[in-house]
Write a structure and sequence with these properties.
The chain has two helices and eight strands, in the order αββββββαββ. It has one domain (11-165). It has 166 residues and is α+β, with helices and mostly antiparallel strands.
Length: 166
Amino acid sequence: MNPKNKKGMTLMEMLVVVIVILLMIMAAYPTYMSGLEKARAQEAVQLISHLIAAQDKFQSECYNMTASGCVYSSSFLNLPLNIEGPNQDTNITKTASSITTSAFVYTLSEDGDITATPRNNSYSYTLTATVGDEKIACNVVNGSDSGKKICSAIAKKSNNNTYIIE
């Protein structure tokens, strides 16, 4: 066959192209997943802020009704909530003690504190909000590097394995 009439690519050339594309995908995938988890964590922070506002509203309305004061709610069912999950997530389950979305499980303690735990266990961190405090903490679990990456990306201040979101 005459080299001047050669058309198309050989099998080896195609294999090299496929390998190069796969290497590029493998290099970009961890960055993509980290960015995706950061976005999920920021959405969780927004929902926690919404839950804090609902707790404050519940407490202030209850306080106005009784002269002796009121405590924060220990049940999500008592809070004035109209929530939609991340990206209008329709897969939300709400009970008295928890709200479950596609990305997080939100729990409510007896004293009204809110904790969000990612459903994806490969990132070891939790988000917590203490009632009466406008700050949300991102806590790294067991010194996890993946948890530190997420917490440091969404928070401004740090103290050991706790990052404060203001």
